[in-house]
Automatic annotation (TrEMBL):
Family (UniProt): Belongs to the G-protein coupled receptor 1 family.
Transmembrane segments: 57-82, 94-119, 125-150, 171-193, 225-248, 282-305, 317-339
Protein's name according to its UniProt entry: Tachykinin-like peptides receptor 99D isoform X1
Keywords: Cell membrane, G-protein coupled receptor, Membrane, Receptor, Transducer, Transmembrane, Transmembrane helix
Bilayer topology annotation: Multi-pass membrane protein
Compartments reported by the entry: Cell membrane
Gene Ontology cellular component list: plasma membrane
InterPro entries cross-referenced by the UniProt entry: GPCR_Rhodpsn, GPCR_Rhodpsn_7TM, Neurokn_rcpt
Gene Ontology molecular functions: tachykinin receptor activity
Residues covered by the G-protein coupled receptors family 1 profile domain: 73-336
Length: 417
């Protein structure tokens, strides 16, 4: 199973610790085309996965920080879109779907799997062994399929601008289909994951959570290998190829083509807005590809070379690979805040409302395009930290120039009453 921590692979070896001090691990040597047994002491094998206390503290800090940032950031993204009508676009609905998946993996999976990897013991029970692994594959699949849906939506909107856009119902239908398909992909984990108790020679016990596939007792099991390869193809290579194609075509259309005749300011602003969204989504996809590539490569390597899991420091190597893959869930909110002014204002408002930055909002603002109300020409909106302050004067009223990003007021300098 792809999301199972590497050290737990040792739990798949059937042993009887109550009668013998050592056990045999069966490996397949492709060079000689034969199987051979390797003797291991069970207690030594178990203890080799227990890190020194200071390393445990270091990894705990890294994982805890990642979980907090990912959970808080994605919850804020969901709040920004759902609490503001002007943010409820097709792309933003898909971003909410992506944030829900990322929140699920950070809260319902990462903490429990990390604890299992750190202590080589599963204290969370039989049901959660199945549910945790199910949520892992479910959220990963939903995330990548949502990214694909966003890329296809951007492709259609830019390459066929006259084609009707997706409505709210169609968008929600696609989101439901994404979760349904992801549930099907993840369903084998509910069926085949189970728990067991290993008794070590020194009398200690440890609980293990592992997949028990139909052919697990065979000399060369194939069921898990086929599932891992299929999962990797469906949730990594095919989506990356698809998104590379769509964003490449969109990039050529937005940056490479030149329109005939003069463009109005509104048309230029529309192109700039589309470019900003596409650039943000390209960054999201690139970060996703980088974070998950080592994870998939690791399991491909261990499938062909099982001895890798017994190498020195393999526990910390896998912890690093696992942290990098799971940290993808915390990067997306950071990217939205960095590359989108509306999300940036939303994050500021959220923390202001929570009192995290001190002071409150003098007036709640929507996150959509600002519009100049003709009935309020005597007021001057001053932009500072995303709030609207109104200043009146006796003789003149000045419109303070808006910062870049609101082109409809860029041409206004002063307006005399």
């Amino acid at each position: 199973m792809l999301v199972e921590p590497s050290p737990t692979e040792a739990t798949n070896w059937t042993t009887n610790y109550s009668t013998v001090p050592n056990y045999y691990i069966t490996f397949y040597d492709e060079a000689s085309n034969r199987y051979y047994n390797h003797t291991k002491n069970a207690t030594e094998e178990y203890q080799s996965f227990i890190l020194p206390w200071w390393r445990q503290v270091l990894w705990t800090v890294l994982f805890a920080g990642m979980v907090v940032v990912a959970t808080l950031g994605n919850v804020v993204v969901i709040w920004i879109v759902l609490a503001n009508k002007r943010m409820r676009s097709v792309t933003n609905y898909f971003l909410v779907n992506l944030s829900v998946a990322d929140t699920m993996v950070s809260t319902l999976n990462v903490t429990f799997n990390f604890t299992y990897m750190l202590y080589s013991d599963w204290p969370f029970g039989h049901f959660y062994c199945k549910f945790c692994q199910f949520i892992a594959v479910l959220s990963i699949s939903a995330s990548v399929f949502t990214l694909m849906a966003i890329s296809i939506d951007r492709y259609v909107a830019i390459m066929s601008p006259l084609r009707p856009r997706l409505g709210k119902r169609a968008t929600l239908g696609i989101a439901a289909a994404i979760w349904a398909g992801s549930s099907i992909i993840s369903s084998p984990n509910i069926i085949y994951f189970t728990t067991d108790v290993d008794v070590l020679p020194d009398g200690n016990t440890r609980r293990v959570c592992f997949p028990e596939w139909p052919d697990s007792t065979s000399e060369k099991p194939q069921f898990e290998y086929v599932y891992n390869v299929a999962f990797m193809v469906l949730t990594y290579f095919l989506p990356i190829i698809s998104m590379t194609y769509t964003y490449a075509k969109v990039g050529v259309e937005l940056w490479g083509s030149k329109s005939i005749g003069e463009c109005t300011q509104r048309q230029l602003d529309n192109v700039k807005s589309k470019r900003r969204v596409v650039k943000m989504m390209i960054v999201v996809v690139v970060i996703f590809a980088v974070c998950w590539l080592p994870f998939h490569v690791y399991f491909v390597i261990t499938s062909y070379y099982p001895n890798v899991v017994t190498y020195p420091y393999i526990q910390e190597i896998y912890l690093g690979i696992y942290w990098l893959a799971m940290s993808n869930s915390m990067y997306n909110p950071i990217i939205y805040c960095w590359m989108n002014s509306k999300f940036r204002r939303g994050f500021k408002q959220f923390f202001w409302c929570c009192g995290a930055l001190g002071g409150g909002l003098s007036r709640h603002r929507a996150f959509g395009p600002d519009r100049l109300d003709r009935s309020m020409r005597s007021f001057s909106p001053s932009r500072k930290n995303g709030t609207s302050l109104f200043k009146t004067t006796v003789k003149t009223t000045k419109f303070v120039k808006k910062p870049p990003g609101s082109p409809h007021l860029l041409h206004v300098n002063k307006l005399h009453k």
